[in-house]
Amino acid sequence: MALRTALGWPSVRGSLGRLTPKCYWALGGTRYVASSSTFQDPAVAAIRPPVGRPLGHIMTHDRPYWRANWEKEDRELPRDQYGVPAQIPPEIATTIKFTYHVPPQYYPFLKKLGDDTPWMKPYCDKLIMGDLTFPEFEEMFYRAAKPLRIYRSRIPKPYRTIEEQSKSEEVMWESAWLSFRQRVNGDYDTHHYFREVALAPWIAFYFAYLWTDAHRQYRIDMKLFYLEAPELKLNWVVPRGDLV
């Protein structure tokens, strides 16, 4: 703040405190507030806002206490299958006629397609006129649709030579042998790790018992040392002679 004052830049608080009626100007529903010492003419200030000067930004709307960022964007609104927002009642939304729109450069192709295919001519004409609805499109689509037929006998099988075919038994035997080895290895690993998991706690409990027993015996030895060996009681309090 001291640097701004030294450079001649008034603070925002000082600018807003020295406002005059000529310091406001409107730009698209937004008012910008500047210092009265910056520009006295609102017309000049609207064209050239103050550069390098504090600027207050005030938003005004028709509805009180309303902000534009509070309103949900249109793409976030729930919609039905035709894209109509859920705020529109169904009795109104169902009366709207939704049709397909095709750019004009496709009209010649659609006209030729209708002339070449007589049963598609009504649909093509409606599409050109912009009257083709979704139910009519479904009717046109499923009228020409045919179930998919699969000829499995025509699907080629993987090619193998005579020598490769003669080794089929060997390949099957190797596959069974590898599967057997994998099962044996899995059983061995299962038993091995299960034995370790079962044995590890017992080993831990054993060493914990040894440490606890050593600590208990150490406490017993210290009690005996201080109670049963008076000549080694170095830290005892010297008796005053008045205690019986």
Search tags:
244 residues, single chain, disordered N terminus, mainly alpha, 9 helices
What is the gist of this entry?
The protein is mainly alpha-helical.
Low-pLDDT parts are 1-40
Mean pLDDT: 77
* Topology pattern, helix = H, strand = E: HHEEHEHHHHHH
Query: Number of helical runs?
Result: 9
- Would you count the extended β strands for me? 3
What does this molecule look like?
This protein is mainly alpha-helical and 244 residues long. Among the domains are: 2-69, no CATH class; 101-144, no CATH class. It has helices at residues 2-7, 12-17, 42-47, 90-93, 107-116, 121-129, 134-144, 162-166, 168-228, and strands spanning 24-27, 30-33, 56-59. Strands 1-2-3 form a three-stranded antiparallel β-sheet. Strand 1 and strand 2 form a beta hairpin. Helix 5 runs antiparallel to helix 6 (121-129).
Topology of helices and strands:
Elements: H1 2-7, H2 12-17, E1 24-27, E2 30-33, H3 42-47, E3 56-59, H4 90-93, H5 107-116, H6 121-129, H7 134-144, H8 162-166, H9 168-228
Antiparallel strand pairs: 1-2, 2-3
Helix pairs in contact: 5-6
